[in-house]
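ok trying again, last paste got cut off:
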Amino acid sequence: QVQLVESGGGLVQPGGSLRLSCAASGTFFSINVMGWYRQAPGQQRELVATIISGGVTNYADSVKGRFTISRDNAKNTVYLQMNSLKPEDTAVYYCKIDRARVGTIRYVNDIWGQGTQVTVSS
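nice, full thing came through this time. structure:
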């Protein structure tokens, strides 16, 4: 009922910027919490940032002051603006819906996008 499509990844030099986008599609009424996660080679997947429908955000300490998460509820899209990128930011970045309302009392949980590669290197 809900699908996520991510875009915006690529290769960037240290200190550069990228903006990731994640668009939700399907049949649903609302999405409460959306977030970005990342997984580097050989590493565990980790939380990068989350945002609720009202706009409250949360960030991992490693990205505070450099990354900004935002969402456009009308377009069902969440963004991750990444500035001052570092080599350690290199990872596959995944968009996630924590919970979406798909009916009067029906919800779906933990919907993941396919991931988009971000590589920070000289």
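cool. The chain is about 0% helix and 60% strand. The mean pLDDT is 94.
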